[in-house]
Amino acid sequence: MWFTQLVERNRQCHPHRTAVADARRSVTWAEFHDRTAQLAHGFAALGIDRGDRVAILSQDRIEVLESYFALARIGALFVPLNHSLSAPEATEIIERVGAVAVVGETELLDRHPELPASVRLRVALDQPVFEALGTEAPEPRPALPDVADTDPVAVLHTSATTGRAKGVTVDAASFRAIALGWLVSARPTDDMVMVNCCPLYHGSMVVSLTYMAAGTTIVLMPGFTPQRAVAAVERHRATHMWMVPQMVRFMLQAKASRTANLGSLREILYGAAPMPPEVYTEAVERLGCGFRQVYGMTEVGGPFVTLGPEEHPAPGQVDARIPCGRVVPGMSARAVDDAGREVPGGEIGEIVVRGPGVMQGYWNEPDATAEITLDGWIRTGDLGFFDGQGRIHLVDRSKDLIIRAGQNVYPSEIERVLTQHPAVLDAAVVGTPDDDYGEVPLAYVVATEGTTAADLLAHARENLAPYKRPTRFEFLAQVPRNPAGKIVKKLLRA
């Protein structure tokens, strides 16, 4: 079983190295190994069995990862929940997966007093009852189930930018395939310490789990703030950070980043959204570290494409979007047309993926699984092309594509141009119906006080063809984004 093997190897090879740290404490690989084994027996003693689903409702902390590994050890599926979900939203997911238990922080559990009938256990991981789990197991301890790598190990929910979140069922073989392929490409060093700024309740967690397979130290935070991120780097002498581009922007804006000692940083991993050129340029110049792009999707196992620091452009030389990079060993991708035929290099098509990292399917949603599957390939919904070096260049989401009088308009291109205006802080573009052209671009913009639509239209005229220019500008205080940094365009369309 991959999860158990991972922990056992790191206990043998790096027993005294810090495995995980959070704001409260840290644990070594030997301690993490012993506690996850102990906790597995504790969960089993509570009646949690192989195949059971257990929801996890918590901010990022050591106990969350301990629970994931312990549940995987007994063949139960961990189901991470976004801790900001409303009571009806969380209840719907818990009921849909038929969770038998909810493990979480007391404050969050108290927000959900009414749970579905399937839930027979509520366990507060910040209370003594959790600490005691497994500590009184008799010796010799009873044998745990024999779990195969092809057994489902988790139900990870999508970010739901276009509709209801779907439960992605993954097995340990998926985690293993992505981890091994990624580590071959990224080649982490033994002294790597990574501050994880992204939450552990969706597919981005795979990045942390992947580096844990190499014995890396992972530093967790109870929610991102730029001040916490900077302090974590300084305190732990972190070599790496895992962020979304908006987090990088916020960190650069924070006063703490100008006075803190961040000289230990060697690499910032970023993904989930395009990196604005001006943010990238400032970050390289200010932080002096390398950047690694992460392109992934929960349905294909997480991060399956990367562009390393050596292939990133020099500051100030980003004239368009930075390519995503190459597929990691073990996974395959191609760009296809509407009929599923592979398109020639340089031509835009939908990116599809296959390999041992892909999901088993959406939980109890065979129709949705069939819809996203194309002759054994998983459809990403992303439009892009391959260059002559095998690198993927993303253009836009297929669902976001605007067709104006038969011409394709990519919102991301307009967003990139708008954010190059010195007064624009953020932008999002969606299609809106038009009697003459069928559909036209509508731009939502966050800008400095005094900026007018006329200012932005003049900027668009200088940088965009007529058919790409927004017909209207709406000013917002903030562009809606989910925790992964992706624009939630369904809210703007509504």
Automatic annotation (TrEMBL):
All residue ranges annotated as the AMP-dependent synthetase/ligase domain in the record: 8-363
GO molecular function terms listed in the Swiss-Prot or TrEMBL record: acid-thiol ligase activity
Domain annotation AMP-binding enzyme C-terminal: ranges: 413-486
InterPro entries the record matches: AMP-bd_C, AMP-bd_C_sf, AMP-dep_synth/lig_dom, ANL_N_sf, ATP-dep_AMP-bd_enzyme
Pfam families: AMP-binding, AMP-binding_C
Keywords carried by this UniProt record: Ligase
Top-level taxonomic group: Bacteria
Membrane-spanning segments: none
Name of the protein described by the UniProt record: Long-chain fatty acid--CoA ligase
Source organism: Streptomyces lonarensis
